[in-house]
């Protein structure tokens, strides 16, 4: 059984006990989080596809940790003008373990 959920502007295919990395969510490690925007569910009875969302279906998970991604360097240089700019960025992420798919 798996589901396709939408969070943070992206879609994820999840099943029970999957660990996914999503955009930052509120909550301390160990707390429960519920994803209500479910686009599709597949189980023993078949496949349900929403238009665009399914009602009465939700996916629950547990926050494992808050982490940060790799550093991305934005370097701009204008030749022969002694002009350059270097900026770094690290995106914040939340690691979530999917516990249950209801519905």
Automatic annotation (TrEMBL):
GO cellular component: cytoplasm; ribonucleoprotein complex; ribosome
Keywords from the UniProt entry: Ribonucleoprotein, Ribosomal protein, RNA-binding, rRNA-binding
Coiled-coil blocks: none
PANTHER family assigned to the protein according to its UniProt record, in alphabetical order: 50S RIBOSOMAL PROTEIN L21 (PTHR21349), LARGE RIBOSOMAL SUBUNIT PROTEIN BL21M (PTHR21349:SF0)
Role noted for this protein: This protein binds to 23S rRNA in the presence of protein L20.
Complex and partners: Part of the 50S ribosomal subunit. Contacts protein L20.
Protein name (Swiss-Prot/TrEMBL): Large ribosomal subunit protein bL21
Organism (species): Microvirga aerophila
């Amino acid at each position: 059984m798996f589901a396709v959920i939408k969070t943070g502007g992206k879609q994820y295919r999840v099943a029970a006990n999957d660990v996914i990395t999503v955009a930052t969510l509120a909550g301390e490690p160990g707390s429960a989080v519920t994803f209500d925007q479910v686009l599709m569910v597949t189980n023993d009875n078949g496949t349900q596809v929403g238009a665009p969302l399914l009602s009465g279906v939700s996916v629950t998970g547990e926050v494992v940790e808050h982490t940060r991604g790799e550093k991305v360097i934005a370097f701009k240089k204008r030749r022969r003008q002694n002009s350059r700019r270097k900026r770094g960025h690290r995106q914040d992420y939340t690691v979530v373990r999917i516990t249950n798919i209801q519905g």
